[in-house]
Every structure is written in C-alpha cells, then in structure tokens.
Design a protein that fits this description.
mainly alpha, Histone, subunit A, 6 helices, elongated
Length: 170
C-alpha cells in the first residue's frame, strides 16, 4: 500500500510508532491553534475608539428631529413610490428623509413660481400705467396670487424640468 505514503520496508511496529508520533504532533498543533484562536479573539475585542466627527453628530441630530416631524408628503406615499422604482425593504428614516427632500423640492418650485408671478404682475402694472385701480392700492402683502401655467413653466425650467401643453389644449 504505497499509496498511503508509507515506506514499504517498515515493520508493523515501526509503522505504529510513526502513526502515534503523527497523532501527537497533530494534537500539539490543535492545542497551538486553539491558543492562537483565543489570542485573536482577545485581540479582536480590543476596538479602537474613533472620535465622532461633527458631520455624524449633525446627522444624528437631524434623524432625531425627523422622528417627530410629519412632512407634507406622507411616508406611505414616498414608500410606495420608492418600492415602485425598485427599492426593497427601506429604512423608515430614509423614507422620511426622501419625503422631506421631495417637500423641499416642491416648495422651491412653488416659491420660484410665486416670484415669477410677482414679477409678471408688477411688469404688467407698470407697462399699462394704471395706478388708480382699487387693487393696486392694496398692501402687497394682502394681495392674493393664483398659480398659473405661465408662472409655473419658467420655475420648472429653472429646475431642469421641461413641460409643454398637449397639442389638443393649444
């Protein structure tokens, strides 16, 4: 049985002695390996503390503030849209952050449209020369504005969104 790697000229007694030696060596190796595993476990328990950065502190503060805040865009709607786009199980904190970002985006567009409306109405009043109207005598803060497509289109264009009326409305 030379395939076992044994020498063909060995006697059965010599064979048993060499087998016992290899068993002892393997037990010693196991004992050494067990000691080295214990040492690596102890070494892995020693964790070096990393100082907290100001960005991490600000993120923690933001997340705690968002827990109590209810954005205009409901979390259920945001989660539904995110799952429709391919997001799987999403952390509720991320859903809340996306909801707040969507609210900010919509409010920026609405604010820009309001500014376009104010500019447009001011330009119309000055170009027509009518300053004797009752509406013109009102305080500008009391004036009510209506969101119109002619104000919304430039506001959307400022944010990179191109919008056109369908041909059947023209």
């Amino acid at each position: 049985m030379a395939s076992d790697g044994e020498d063909m000229n060995m006697t059965p007694t010599e064979s048993e002695v060499s087998a016992a030696e290899t068993e002892n060596e393997s037990e010693d190796n196991l004992h050494i390996d067990a000691q080295s595993d214990e040492e690596t476990d102890e070494e892995s328990l020693e964790v070096e503390e990393v100082p907290v950065t100001s960005e991490e502190v600000e993120m923690d503060e933001l997340l705690t503030q968002l827990e109590d805040y209810a954005p205009t865009m409901p979390d259920a709607l945001t989660l539904s849209i995110m799952q429709g786009c391919g997001f799987g199980a999403v952390d509720p904190r991320i859903v809340r952050i996306v909801s707040v970002c969507a609210q900010k985006f919509i409010s920026d567009i609405a604010n820009d449209a309001l500014q376009h409306c104010k500019t447009r109405t001011t330009n119309i009043q000055h170009s027509s020369g009518h300053s004797s109207n009752k509406v013109d005598k009102k305080n500008p803060k009391d004036r009510k504005y209506t969101l119109a497509m002619e104000d919304l289109l430039p506001a959307l264009a400022d944010h990179g969104i191109t919008m056109r009326k369908p041909q059947y409305f023209v």
